[in-house]
Design a protein that fits this description.
Oligomer: single chain
Bound molecules: adenosine-5'-diphosphate, magnesium ion
Radius of gyration: 17 Å
Strand content: 25-35%
Largest sheet: 6 strands, mixed
Order of helices and strands: EEEHEEHEHHHHEHEHEEH
Number of domains: 1
Protein name: High-affinity branched-chain amino acid transport ATP-binding protein LivF
Strand order of the largest sheet: 6-7-8-3-9-10
Distance between the termini: 33 Å
Structural class: alpha/beta
CATH topology: Rossmann fold
CATH class: Alpha Beta
Pfam families: ABC_tran
CATH superfamily: P-loop containing nucleotide triphosphate hydrolases
Organism: Methylobacterium isbiliense
Number of strands: 10
CATH architecture: 3-Layer(aba) Sandwich
Shape: globular
GO molecular function: ATP binding
Family: Belongs to the ABC transporter superfamily.
Length: 231
Amino acid sequence: MLNVDAIDLHYGAAQALRGVSLTAEVGQVTAVLGRNGVGKTSLMRAIVGQQPVSKGAVRLAGEDISRLAPYDRARRGIAFVPQGREIFPLLTVKENLETGFAPLKRRDRHVPGEIYDLFPVLKDMLHRRGGDLSGGQQQQLAIGRALVTRPRLLVLDEPTEGIQPSIIKDIGRAISYLRSKGEMAIVLVEQYFEWARDLCDAYAVMDRGQVVEAGPRSGMVEAQVRRWLSV
Ligand SMILES: Nc1ncnc2c1ncn2[C@@H]1O[C@H](COP(=O)(O)OP(=O)(O)O)[C@@H](O)[C@H]1O
Ligand SMILES: [Mg+2]
């Protein structure tokens, strides 16, 4: 479904990605691991179109989408749960979910009930402001908002960052469920080795703007991967 092919990415003169490749298949979770500052978020921005690539290509189902704006990628089925969640604090939960409607045709503009099954708290708090939710509830809202578009590719950037263990479990269950449905490819950026390993089918480890290790989950050797994660 997703094919990132040898991309470079720059912020001005500073190079954040060097020849990075990554694939993600429908019905699978691809975990991207690595320390802070190695380029994980830059890679996700390149995939969703928030940051242009200076070399290489991003392909979705064979189509080169490297030059498309984020909106056009969203219309092709890419949904993004950004690091830090970026929900709207003054909008209600319902309104936050509805901001996900933008790339949808009018007839598709409804919130799938499944989102409330995955995250019942969103239904309970539908008319509360986003800013009144806890960090973990906001993360569930950010995932719900992404699912409103019924994506073919779901990109999650550190969804467990700063979140309490019980909600991390809920989010893990939701990702497993979405994976098992077999309708979307999932790219999951994570810093926690065990959580990522338990959820993923394939993995890539980044360091200093490059992929330094990648492959199927079966080839994920804990000690080897942890070398890249420890400070
Ligand atoms: N908007 C930006 N402008 C300039 N440099 C940036 C910007 N965003 C990230 N960087 C730099 O790019 C590198 C990779 O950052 P990032 O992709 O956020 O890494 P990670 O998500 O792995 O922590 C870091 O050196 C960071 O300082
Ligand atoms: Mg990041």
